[in-house]
Design brief:
- The protein is mainly α.
- Helices cover 91% and strands 0% of the residues.
- It contains one helix and no strands.
- The termini are far apart.
Length: 66
């Protein structure tokens, strides 16, 4: 292999490694986004449950519960 072939090979290797690194970073970003989405859904569900509990407590306190 002459110098130009070796340089081309090394450039190809570097490009492949950079692409793989980019793919890994995108996977991590996607995983972080999914985790955030799940956390926000859980937080929303907890807030909804607390609001329902508070509404029920007010109904009980005021005698408005059926």
């Amino acid at each position: 292999m002459d110098k130009s072939q070796n340089a081309g090979y090394q450039a190809g290797q570097a490009k492949g490694q950079a692409q793989e690194k980019g793919n890994q970073m995108m996977d991590k970003a996607g995983n972080a986004a999914q985790s955030c989405k799940e956390t926000m859904q859980e937080t929303g569900e907890q807030a909804k449950a607390k609001a329902q509990g508070a509404a029920d407590a007010v109904k009980n306190a005021t005698g408005m519960k059926n």
